[in-house]
Design brief:
Elements: E1 34-36, E2 40-42, E3 46-47, H1 52-55, E4 65-69, H2 75-82, E5 86-91, H3 108-133, E6 138-141, E7 154-160, H4 169-177, E8 180-189, E9 208-210, E10 224-226, H5 228-237, E11 242-252, E12 255-265
Parallel strand pairs: 4-5, 4-7, 5-6, 7-8
Antiparallel strand pairs: 1-2, 3-11, 8-12, 9-10, 11-12
Organism: Methylobacterium frigidaeris
InterPro entries: SAM-dependent_MTases_sf
Protein name: Methyltransferase type 11
Length: 274
């Protein structure tokens, strides 16, 4: 396949965001540790560098147009660009933000600006890295449930720990995969208490575990742990019927965490009516 020319669109064209000059790393939050020319190693919560191939399911991205869904500070997209991909990074923008669990004492007017500031710091880190790397990746943003069709089709969609904080992960999958022609890579973390899910065959059910608890009220808690077999079935429903699961450990805040990666291939065309 011949890669599309990234210069065919101006970077300020909708739906893409105009690049911003970010010079101060103190205004940034890096979700992933990244090595930046002229700046050295910048530390983030996750360090995927030692086992990046496992995280990406060993999918070859050279010459492919790739959607980095839930890009945060951009590490995965920049890493795939370095491997020869044309990358579209996508994440929250504007009024769209994480959906907090609506406990009775939930104060949206207080919490939403705090969340948007956190997302803005991720975006700052993205543009800071983008400039340091001389990247040609483009970034778009909005609701994670409504990836705009103006992005145009991609060959590969990568969703790296992007679904657990969404109240409706299936809706988000559908929105991203309707634009995906070939392959989807979904990586999620398995909490220690639910690591038995890796041994659960599809014939025994397709669990989706709700994480919030009424007696804990963690403000920035995730919504779900999705069993690997459930993820395979969700992808099959959306036309990606051939899939495989692998397991690996990644570094989060200095501790090794078990993750799974599902790589699925499109076997049925997108339904244009949905």
């Amino acid at each position: 396949m011949t890669m599309a020319d990234p210069t065919a669109h101006r970077e300020t064209d909708a739906p893409y965001l105009a690049p911003r000059a970010v010079d101060d790393p103190a205004t940034c939050t890096f979700n992933h540790t990244i090595d930046l020319p002229g700046h050295g190693t910048v530390t983030g919560a996750w360090d995927l560098r030692p086992a990046l191939d496992d995280y990406l399911g060993h999918v070859a991205v050279a010459g492919k147009r790739v959607l980095d869904f839930g890009a945060t500070s951009g590490f995965l997209g920049f890493a795939m660009e370095a491997r020869g991909a044309e990358v579209v990074s996508y994440d929250f923008a504007g009024e769209a933000c994480w959906e907090m669990v609506p406990y009775p004492d939930f104060e949206r007017a207080v919490i939403a600006p705090e969340i948007r500031n956190h997302l803005r710091r991720f975006e700052n880190a993205y543009w800071y890295s983008h400039a340091a790397l001389g990247s040609r990746a483009r970034r778009a943003g909005g609701s994670l449930y409504e990836v705009p069709e103006a992005i145009d089709p991609v060959d590969v969609a990568v969703l790296g720990n992007a679904l657990a904080r969404l109240r409706d992960p299936f809706r988000a999958l559908h929105g991203a995969l309707r634009l995906t022609r070939e392959t989807v890579v979904v990586t999620e973390m398995l909490p220690k208490s639910l690591q038995f899910l890796r041994y659960l065959p599809r014939s025994l059910g397709l669990p989706l575990f709700l994480l919030p608890r009424s007696d804990q009220r963690i403000r920035f808690d995730a919504w779900w742990t999705i069993a690997p077999t459930t993820m395979q079935e969700l992808l099959a429903i959306l036309g990606f019927g051939e899939s495989a699961v692998t397991y690996h450990r990644q570094s989060l805040l200095g501790q090794k965490r078990l993750c799974y990666t599902v790589v699925a291939r499109r076997t049925e065309p997108t339904n244009p009516e949905l």
